[in-house]
Amino acid sequence: MALLKVFLVRTMISGIWIAQGVLPIMQDITPSQRFHDSLARNRTQCYQIKNYVRLNTYS
C-alpha cells in the first residue's frame, strides 16, 4: 500500500512537471519554471551563436 502511495505521488509530481512545460500559465507560480525557461533561452542563444560562427567561417 505504501509503495502504491509513493507511485501515485511520483506520477503526480511528473504530471505537474509536464503541465509546467506545456502550460506557460503556471510560469509565475513556480520559480523552477522560470529557471527552465532561462535554461531554454540560454540554449537557443548558444545555438544562434554557433550558427553565426558557422556562417561566418564558411562564407
The gyration radius over C-alpha positions equals 18 Å
Low-confidence stretches: none
Structural class: mainly alpha
Helical percentage: over 70%
SSE order: HH
Describe the global form. rod-shaped
What's the mean pLDDT score?
Answer: 66
Please report which band the strand proportion falls in: under 5%, 5-15%, 15-25%, 25-35%, 35-45% or over 45%. Answer: under 5%
| Biggest sheet record | none
Number of helices: 2
Q: How many beta-strand elements?
A: 0
Between the first and last Cα atoms, what is the distance in angstroms? Answer: 64 Å
Task: Give the tally of structural domains.
Answer: 1
Keywords: Signal
Signal peptide: 1-18
How do the helices and strands line up, and which of them pair or pack?
Elements lengths: L1 H21 L8 H28 L1
Polypeptide structure, described:
Helices cover 83% and strands 0% of the residues. By secondary structure, the protein is an all-alpha fold. The protein has one domain. The N and C termini lie far apart (64 Å). Keywords: Signal.
Task: Write a compact overview of the structure shown.
This protein is mostly helical and 59 residues long. 83% of the residues lie in helices and 0% in strands.
Can you give keywords for this protein?
mainly alpha, signal
